[in-house]
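Shall we go through a protein fold together, starting from nothing but its sequence? Please make up or recall a protein chain and show it to me in full. Go ahead whenever you are ready, and we will take it from there.
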Amino acid sequence: MFVDSHCHIDFPELAARLPEILDTMQTNQVSEALCVSVTLQEFPRVLALAETHPNIYASVGVHPDYEDTVEPTVDGLLKLAVHPRIVAIGETGLDYYRLQGDLEWQRERFRVHIRASRESRKPLIIHTRSASADTLRLMREEKAGTDVGGAGGVMHCFTESLEVAEAAMAMGFYISFSGIVTFKNAKELQAVARAVPLERMLIETDSPYLAPVPKRGKTNEPGFVRHVAEFLADLKGVPLATLAEATTRNFRNLFNIPAPDSAPSV
């Protein structure tokens, strides 16, 4: 079985097709998915999906791309993260690609999420784009890593260098690969994926974006994470079952999610 460790099925283009989305997951042996929050205003619909569907989990956080939105506070995130269906803090991090100017507000928002992660003991989902040096610096300064008592987390939709991946893994973080790794022009990222050990790897769709080959150009969805897994298994020269088992185990370990057959009955 496969797991999609990062998706946005609350977004309108997927929410309108939810029964079909869930059926495609089942057809492709994708057992569970983590629906990731991007703003506090939209958080209720993320949580509602996790409350309604036992194989959907949720996070709480504010994406760094959203400038004009309700700012999170540590106390506010902690109150929302108490819910048992919330398994992570984020999506958070830094993005210097889309936004210009004084981005200190973005760095402060990231610090707030890291502090909430440390206090809640729920891992971080980190987005970084054109900002890897500052991202790693703040992770160290705020003690996000398990190596210094933090809850750790995942570098999602990873597109950075092996050096950045190794620095994150040294702090106890996982590296998650999306459909980008399947693209023909992603040779450098594919080299990183070869080097990241299976015990530190996750897979994701980041749907509705970044559909993997052979679905590139289509609206992405959690069921397509199987294609990411197939590509990575071939890239690393391991059986598909081995990669599926490792990434699913990593997902459960990171987000403290029991396997379905050992989950308590409701």
